[in-house]
Amino acid sequence: MSDVDPVTTSVSAPVQTLAGQVGVAMQALDQSPNNALQTFLFADLPADFNRSLDAQVLDGTGANGQLQGILGLSGTGLTTFTTGSPTVPLFYGKAASAIQSVVAEHRPCTVQLTLSETLASGGSQVGTRG
Question: Which pTM does this prediction carry?
Answer without folding.
Answer: 0.53
